[in-house]
From TrEMBL:
Organism: Tetrahymena thermophila (strain SB210)
Pfam family, one: HD
A cellular-component GO term for this protein: nucleus
One Gene Ontology biological process: dGTP catabolic process
Designated name of the protein: SAM domain and HD domain protein
C-alpha cells in the first residue's frame, strides 16, 4: 500500500476512526511523525515483541513480551488461587474469578488508557508534560507494570484478610498494598530471577529494577498532590498524572476500579457494567492533571453509583457477610498454628498463603485446628450465623459494637414464658452476638467526588476548570455515603435470636430514631402451592355501606366457600384526579 495515496484528516482524534477507511482494511500499523507531511507512515508489525491472551472481558490482552516474564513467576502465579470476591461465590455462583485475571485486566487498561490519552493529544507529548516519544514509552512501561502488580499482596479471600482478620489479630494498619510492595521487590530484586540483566523492555524504554521500583510502588499506592510535590516535582521526570492511572488519590477514578466495575458484574450476570471507553475517549492532560470533557460528567457519577450498588447488593450481601464472619472466626482460631502476623512480613511464607488454607485446615490432624474445622464444616453445610436485622444511618455517626450491644440489652423486653431470667444479655449471649459496621460511599466519604475532577470544554481543550455543583445537575445526590449496621447471632438459638431482634428493634426506634430492616422467612408470605385449590372470588350484587366519618364506602365480597368480607373501596380504586 502506498501511504501517499491515503487521505489523512488534519486533526485525527484516534486511530479507530482512521482504520474505518476502505484503504486500511489490511490492518496495517501506523505511527505519528511530526516531521512528515503525511503524519502516519506504514510500518511492519513486529509480532515477536508482544504476547496476546484471550480475556472474557476485554477480548484480548496484548502486552510486550518481556513484561510477561513478571507474570511467569511464582509470586504472580499465586494470584490464580485468590478469589477476587472472597466468599461471594457461596451466594453468587459466578463469583469464581481470581485476582490473576483482574490484575491482567488492569495492566491492559493501563496500557490502553495511555495510548488513548496520547491519541487524544495527537501524540504531542509536550502537552502531556513529557519530553518525547521515548519518555512516553518509559512512562507507559512503568504504569503498566504497576497495574499488573497492584494486587500482588492480597491475602486469602481478598479484602476479608486485611479488613477483618488482621485487625482482630491486632494489626490495624497493614493493607494489601504493603504486601504488593513486598512481593514486587521479591520479584524484581531477586538475584535468581535476574531482572537486572534480562531487562523488561519496550522499544527504547527499559526497566531498571533498582531505580524504578520506588516509582512503580508509588504508582501502585497513588500519591496526593503534596506527596508528589515532595518527591517528584523538582525532577520533572514524572508528572503528577502518571501516579493517578492505577490508583487515583485525587478523584478515585482509576483503571483498577474500571476493570472490576466491568469484570465483577459480567461474571455475576448483574447488569451494572460501565463502558470505560467513554471515559478514555474524553480524557486530556492539562497542567499535569487528568481532565475530562464536561459533557461526560454524568458518566462519572455513573462510575460511583455502580460501585455503590455493587457494594450494597453483592459485596456486602448479608449471607456473604455471615460466611466471612465465620471464616474469620475459623482463621482467628487457627492463628496459633499459622501465625499470620509473621507470615505477612516474609515473602517466602506469604507466597504459600492463598485460599487453599481452607483445604489445609480441613485436611489437618492437628488438634489445635479442631475448632476451625468445625466452623468450616458449618459453612459447607449451610449452618451459618443468623442474620437478625440491619439499619442504615449517617456514615458520620460513630458507634461501637459495645454501644450497640448495650443498647440491645437495655431495650430488650422479650422473655420466653418458660424462663424467669433477666431480659438483659448475659456475657455468653453478648459473646455470641456480632455487630458489623459497613460504610458505603462514593469513595470520598461525604464529599461529591465530581467536585475533585477537572473538566474542559470541547471548544477550549487546553483550559481546565472545576464544574460548579449547581451547574452539573439538579438531580445530583445530596448525600454521598451511608453506614449499614448489621447484627448476627452465632448459634441457631431461638431465645437468643428473639432477644436480640426485640432489643435491636427497640434500641434503634427509641435511641437512634430509625427502623430496623430484618429478613425473617417466617414473616414472608408462603408461595402458593399449585397442588392446592385456589379460592375464587366473586363480588356480590353492589351493596355499599356509607361510612359517615370518612365519606368512604364498604363493598361486600363473598368468597365461594361462603365467607364474607368487607373492603374499603378507596383501597381498590384510585382517584385519577
Amino acid at each position: 500500500m502506498n501511504p501517499e495515496k491515503l487521505s489523512v484528516p488534519k486533526v485525527l482524534r484516534n486511530l479507530e476512526e482512521f482504520s474505518q477507511c476502505q484503504d486500511l482494511q489490511d490492518h496495517s500499523y501506523f505511527y505519528f511523525d511530526q516531521n512528515s507531511i503525511n503524519p502516519y507512515k506504514e510500518i511492519e508489525p513486529n509480532w515477536d515483541e508482544t504476547r496476546r491472551i484471550s480475556d472474557p472481558i476485554h477480548q484480548f490482552i496484548e502486552l510486550p513480551k518481556s513484561i510477561w516474564r513478571i507474570v511467569d513467576t511464582e509470586e504472580y502465579q499465586r494470584l490464580r488461587y485468590i478469589k477476587q470476591l472472597g466468599m461471594t461465590g457461596f451466594v453468587f455462583n459466578g463469583a469464581n474469578h481470581t485476582r490473576f485475571e483482574h490484575c491482567l485486566g488492569v495492566a491492559h487498561l493501563s496500557w490502553t488508557y495511555l495510548d488513548k490519552i496520547a491519541m487524544n493529544h495527537q501524540y504531542k507529548f509536550e502537552q502531556m508534560g513529557l519530553k518525547d516519544a521515548d519518555h512516553f514509552d518509559q512512562i507507559k512501561l512503568l504504569v503498566t507494570i504497576a497495574g499488573l502488580c497492584h494486587d500482588l499482596g492480597h491475602g486469602p479471600f481478598s479484602h476479608m484478610f486485611d479488613n477483618i482478620l488482621l485487625p482482630r489479630l491486632g494489626e490495624k494498619k497493614w493493607k494489601h498494598e504493603e504486601g504488593s510492595c513486598m512481593m514486587l521487590r521479591s520479584i524484581l530484586l531477586s538475584e535468581e530471577k535476574d531482572f537486572m540483566t534480562n531487562l523488561v523492555t519496550y522499544k527504547n524504554a527499559k526497566l531498571n529494577p533498582k531505580e524504578d521500583i520506588e516509582v512503580i510502588l508509588d504508582m501502585i499506592e497513588g500519591l496526593t498532590l503534596s506527596q508528589w510535590k515532595d518527591k517528584y516535582e523538582e525532577k520533572k521526570q514524572y508528572p503528577k498524572w502518571v501516579f493517578d492511572i492505577v490508583s487515583n488519590k485525587t478523584t478515585s477514578i482509576d483503571v483498577d476500579k474500571l476493570d472490576y466495575l466491568k469484570r465483577d458484574p459480567s461474571c455475576l450476570n448483574v447488569k451494572h457494567e460501565f463502558d470505560y471507553n467513554i471515559l478514555f475517549n474524553e480524557t486530556r492532560i492539562i497542567d499535569g492533571e487528568i481532565c475530562y470533557n464536561s459533557k461526560i460528567h454524568d458518566t462519572i457519577y455513573d462510575i460511583f453509583h455502580i460501585r455503590y450498588k455493587l457494594f450494597k447488593h453483592i459485596y456486602l450481601h448479608r449471607v456473604t457477610q455471615a460466611i466471612e464472619l465465620m471464616l474469620c472466626d475459623a482463621l482467628e482460631k487457627a492463628n496459633p498454628v499459622f501465625n499470620f502476623l509473621e507470615t505477612i512480613k516474609s515473602p517466602q511464607r506469604y507466597l504459600r498463603l492463598t485460599d487453599s488454607i481452607i483445604e489445609i485446615i480441613l485436611g489437618s490432624e492437628d488438634c489445635e485446628l479442631a475448632e476451625s474445622q468445625q466452623l468450616l464444616k458449618r459453612i459447607f453445610t449451610r449452618k451459618i450465623y443468623k442474620f437478625v436485622g440491619e439499619i442504615v444511618i449517617d456514615q458520620q455517626k460513630d458507634l461501637t459494637e459495645s454501644q450497640v450491644l448495650d443498647g440491645i440489652s437495655r431495650n430488650n423486653q422479650y422473655r420466653p414464658s418458660f424462663s424467669c431470667s433477666s431480659t438483659k444479655l448475659n456475657d455468653f449471649e453478648r459473646k455470641n452476638t456480632i455487630v458489623t459496621f459497613s460504610k458505603i460511599n462514593y469513595c470520598m466519604k461525604d464529599q461529591d467526588p465530581v467536585n475533585n475532577c477537572y473538566f474542559f470544554k470541547s471548544s477550549q481543550p487546553f483550559e481546565k476548570k472545576k464544574l460548579p455543583a449547581q451547574n452539573s445537575s439538579l438531580l445530583r445526590p445530596q448525600k454521598f455515603g451511608e453506614q449499614i449496621i448489621r447484627v448476627f447471632v452465632k448459634e441457631n438459638d431461638e431465645v437468643l435470636i428473639n432477644k436480640v431482634k426485640n432489643g435491636f428493634a427497640l434500641y434503634t426506634q427509641k435511641e437512634l430514631h430509625t427502623e430496623t430492616g430484618a429478613y425473617d422467612k417466617k414473616d414472608h408470605q408462603k408461595t402458593p402451592n399449585k397442588s392446592e385449590p385456589q379460592k375464587k372470588f366473586k363480588l356480590s350484587s353492589p351493596q355499599y355501606e356509607n361510612n359517615e366519618n370518612t365519606n368512604q364506602k364498604q363493598m361486600n365480597i363473598i368468597i365461594n366457600d361462603g365467607s364474607q368480607y368487607q373492603l374499603n373501596t378507596k383501597t381498590l380504586f384510585q382517584n385519577d384526579d
